[in-house]
Design goal:
103 residues; mainly alpha; Four Helix Bundle (Hemerythrin (Met), subunit A); 80% helix
Length: 103
């Protein structure tokens, strides 16, 4: 998770991530509905990198799998993958809120 001794800039970047997160998840969800594998891959890639930056390794791993599947055109399980991703995100965010007092 987020390293101890984080700076104000880091906290601000985390808050920006949190503000953008629902939009990224919604974009992935809409791309799944429309069958847009390119958009799923692009947004999953974005989420993978951002999650890794904050130490959300499970989220990053799940996003990487979704990205790779979408790149290969396999989006059959994308909805269930997104659901697992959202669960992991909620868990990671709850840990940061509890341990670091950040929302």
């Amino acid at each position: 998770m987020i390293a101890d001794g984080y700076t104000e800039d880091f906290v601000e970047i985390y808050r920006e991530f949190m503000a953008e997160l629902p939009l990224v998840v919604e974009d992935i969800s809409q791309a799944i509905v429309t069958g847009d594998a390119t958009q799923i891959s692009r947004k999953a890639h974005q989420l993978k990198g951002a999650a890794a930056n904050f130490g959300f390794l499970e989220v990053s791993s799940l996003a990487a799998k979704l990205e790779m599947d979408a790149k290969s055109g396999n989006i059959t399980d994308a909805a269930s993958q997104l659901s697992a991703l959202q669960t992991a995100l909620e868990s990671s965010i709850a840990i940061v809120a509890a341990e670091k007092g950040m929302k």
